[in-house]
């Protein structure tokens, strides 16, 4: 094959090049554009649509941190709107299934959300099921609207760093090679990430125990019937929904992953696992997956980052991968933008790995624990019975809900106050003509200093409403949860709180730690 190489000397240099326009890459691109950073996305698929991104296989559970991320960027309505899978009216749904652990389900009425003392009701305060294709479409529309350049049908084949601290990205599209230059490169190119491999990122984890199958099938009229619900057997697990959705876990060490899935193969696996002489008439679509789990030991090497599945892979059990990736993007976007604009405090970019790696590790272990419960054999059935008992207690269900819904997420920011490192409650500041919520205020992508007691010392520090990358807001909240002042990062994470006596030095230390130099005035400030 002959290829033509066009060297991108004449092409523009981008602040950031993102490999992969999946949900994580697209959301990150929106985050960077929000902060006036130029972004080029390179995506290998010419067509973003695929049957595997549509229902039933394309169903993705979105947890509360993801819902909050979309809410805080004004995307939530579009994600929910016209989404065939999503729950139309938000708000916790008593009696409905809220989640599961290894297939053991719990409902919204099983757990006690009043224990989550620093949460306030808000439009994003529930998990939903959403169709992946719709989520990607919404994010792509936003990305294009804010000026992200997306090139589809372009495969990233490698990259190199040049002496002038730039990254040159090698691509191939329709047999033509082309190079693109950027200051920073982020690999959002999925589980088999080229950026991770070429960049020499160490990727460590555990090998698969099973091949998972998701298929849409029809049983033959004369087939032996299968029992409803999830069934664990001595060979694995299977469930066949009335809609024809078949899910199986065949504990074969992941041997059949990425092999062709014929009707005959699917039927023989189903018969082997179930021990029932089931006959399939039709297989409409089928895909495989495994419980292989692995994580990059660092998410950054110099000017190259990993985010989403490129940084961590695990089984889809309990559906956390997309949520983990959106969390990566929300965490990285504002830090990288602040660095590009030259206003980041020292070490800010390294906090991307130190904050996100432990969260990823927790999710990987959560999925591994489910595999231990799902394994065929007596020991796992005994474990399953114990987990079921625990989940039937209120405290047990509350623990599982915290993990599955994502409300237990907390970064270790080194402060003792329970709210620091957690998602900010959606305080509503009372205003004439209607309140202003923290979620809406975060849409500009700035940090927030929310002062419920209109303190003079703080007002003096903020001669303008936007100072040092922080928007200052004073006002009485509808509910204050015992707090007086909060410093909130652009990703909605609480960086500092004051409950009563204000220690201005303590505030300045926190502000410098996350927002850098005191006298810096945001260039893109938009006066009210
Ligand atoms: C059956 C199943 C069910 C799941 N359910 C859930 C769930 O309920 N909740 C949840 O949170 N997660 C779930 N997940 C996981 C979730 O889908 C992934 O974690 C998520 O899609 C990862 O997003 P990403 O953008 O990091 O990667 P991807 O979605 O894999 O996107 C990567 C993009 O990069 C492109 N690309 C790859 N290589 C290159 C290259 N060399 N050059 C250019 N482009 C490239 C790809 O074409 C793709 O568009 C599930 C996964 C499966 C398989």
From TrEMBL:
The keyword Translocase does not apply. Residues 14-367 form the FAD-binding domain. It comes from the Eukaryota. Its cofactor is FAD. GO terms for molecular function: FAD binding; oxidoreductase activity, acting on paired donors, with incorporation or reduction of molecular oxygen, NAD(P)H as one donor, and incorporation of one atom of oxygen. Signal peptide: none annotated. Pfam families: FAD_binding_3, Rng_hyd_C. InterPro entries: FAD-bd, FAD/NAD-bd_sf, RIFMO-like. Keywords: FAD, Flavoprotein, Monooxygenase, Oxidoreductase. PROSITE patterns: PROKAR_LIPOPROTEIN. PANTHER family: BINDING MONOOXYGENASE, PUTATIVE (JCVI)-RELATED, TRK SYSTEM POTASSIUM UPTAKE PROTEIN. This is FAD-dependent monooxygenase. It comes from Diplogelasinospora grovesii.
């Amino acid at each position: 094959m002959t290829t033509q190489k066009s060297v991108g000397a004449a092409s523009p240099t981008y602040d950031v090049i993102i490999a992969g326009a999946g949900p994580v890459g697209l959301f990150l691109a929106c985050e960077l554009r929000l902060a006036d950073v130029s972004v080029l996305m390179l995506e290998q698929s010419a067509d973003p649509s695929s049957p595997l991104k549509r229902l039933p296989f394309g169903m993705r559970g979105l947890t509360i941190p993801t819902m909050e991320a979309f809410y805080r960027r004004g995307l939530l309505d579009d994600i929910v709107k016209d989404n065939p899978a999503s729950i139309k009216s938000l708000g916790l749904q008593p009696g409905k299934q809220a989640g599961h652990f290894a297939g053991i389900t719990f409902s919204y009425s099983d757990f006690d959300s009043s224990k989550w003392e620093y949460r306030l009701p808000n439009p994003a305060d529930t998990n939903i099921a959403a169709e992946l294709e719709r989520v990607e479409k919404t994010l792509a529309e936003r990305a294009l609207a804010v000026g992200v350049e997306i090139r589809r049908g372009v495969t990233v084949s490698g990259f190199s760093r040049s002496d002038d601290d730039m990254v040159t990205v090698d691509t191939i599209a329709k047999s033509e090679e082309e190079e693109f230059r950027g200051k920073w490169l982020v690999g959002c190119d999925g589980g088999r990430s080229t950026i991770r491999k070429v960049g020499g990122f160490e990727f460590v984890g555990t090998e698969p125990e099973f091949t998972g199958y998701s298929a849409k099938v029809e049983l033959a009229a004369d087939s032996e019937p299968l029992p409803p619900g999830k069934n664990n057997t001595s060979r694995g697990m299977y469930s066949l929904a009335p809609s024809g959705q078949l899910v199986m876990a065949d504990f074969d060490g992941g041997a059949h992953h990425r092999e062709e899935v014929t009707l005959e193969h699917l039927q023989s696996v189903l018969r082997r696992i179930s021990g029932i002489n089931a006959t399939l008439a039709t297989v409409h679509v089928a895909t495989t997956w495994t419980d292989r789990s692995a994580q990059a030991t660092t998410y950054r090497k110099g000017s190259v980052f990993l985010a989403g599945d490129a940084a961590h892979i695990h089984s889809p059990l309990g559906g956390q991968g997309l949520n983990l990736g959106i969390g990566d993007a929300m965490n990285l976007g504002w830090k990288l933008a602040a660095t590009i604009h030259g206003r980041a405090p020292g070490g800010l970019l390294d906090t991307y790995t130190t904050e996100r790696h432990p969260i990823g590790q927790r999710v990987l272990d959560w999925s591994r624990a489910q595999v231990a419960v799902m394994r065929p054999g007596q020991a796992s059935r005994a474990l399953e019975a114990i987990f079921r008992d625990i989940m039937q207690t209120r405290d047990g269900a509350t623990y599982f809900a915290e993990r599955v819904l994502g409300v237990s997420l907390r970064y270790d920011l080194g402060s003792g106050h329970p709210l620091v490192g957690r998602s900010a409650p959606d305080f509503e500041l009372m205003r004439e003509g209607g309140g202003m919520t923290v979620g809406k205020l975060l849409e500009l992508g700035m940090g927030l200093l929310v002062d419920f007691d209109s303190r003079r010392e703080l007002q003096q520090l903020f001669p303008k409403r936007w100072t040092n990358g922080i928007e200052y807001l004073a006002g009485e909240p509808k509910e204050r949860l015992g707090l007086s002042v909060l410093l909130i990062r652009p990703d909605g994470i609480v960086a500092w709180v004051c409950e009563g006596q204000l220690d201005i030095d303590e505030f300045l230390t926190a502000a410098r730690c996350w927002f850098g130099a005191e006298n810096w005035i945001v260039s893109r400030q938009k006066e009210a």
